[in-house]
Design a protein that fits this description.
The protein is 13% helix and 32% strand. With 156 residues, the chain is an alpha+beta fold. The strands form 3 sheets. It has a 4-stranded antiparallel sheet with strand order 1-2-4-3.
């Protein structure tokens, strides 16, 4: 999949839903490479710029919703803020994963040693809550479904 072309999953007069590839930043970053909004604006050439409703980490691929105008952005942003939107991520993790499912509730904060990394920090961390379940076990690695309840950077 070319990073200059973002696959469109759904589109109407209010929103566009795309499949964001890994490695494409949602917002401007230090690389100077085009971000999701810039790529979509060039691809679709609408009279108004697309508006972010939520974010995905740069290295995360997945479905992303963007608004076509301010009213739609406000409406859908409120749904995300009120946690009315359920998010589900698939991840392959290094195992073994002994439990069938679980809940991770640990406060996370940005690392002082590496500002691009997050870590568990009981005192400085913000609440982070993720539900997960094992979908498949590959005798070492495992496929899990992770459902973040909160929306912290690098939570999953």
């Amino acid at each position: 999949m070319s990073k200059e072309h973002l696959p469109i999953v759904f589109e109407n007069d209010q929103i566009i839903i795309i499949n964001k590839p890994a490695g494409v930043s949602v917002t401007a970053d230090r690389t100077g490479l085009p971000n999701v909004v810039e790529l979509l604006n060039a691809q679709c050439q609408l009279p108004e710029s697309f508006r972010l409703v939520h974010r995905l980490d740069k290295e995360t691929s997945g479905v992303m919703l963007l608004a076509k105008h301010r009213d739609a952005q406000s409406r859908y942003s409120r749904l995300f803020a009120r946690r009315c939107v359920q998010k589900l991520y698939l991840a392959i993790v290094n195992g073994p994963v002994f439990s069938v499912s679980g809940c991770i509730k640990d406060p996370i904060a940005r690392s002082r040693r590496n500002p691009r990394a997050m870590h568990i920090h009981p005192r400085l961390g913000k609440p982070a809550h993720t539900l997960w379940r094992r979908l498949a076990d590959f005798n070492g690695p495992a496929l899990i479904a992770a459902q973040p309840i909160t929306g912290r950077t690098h939570q999953i």
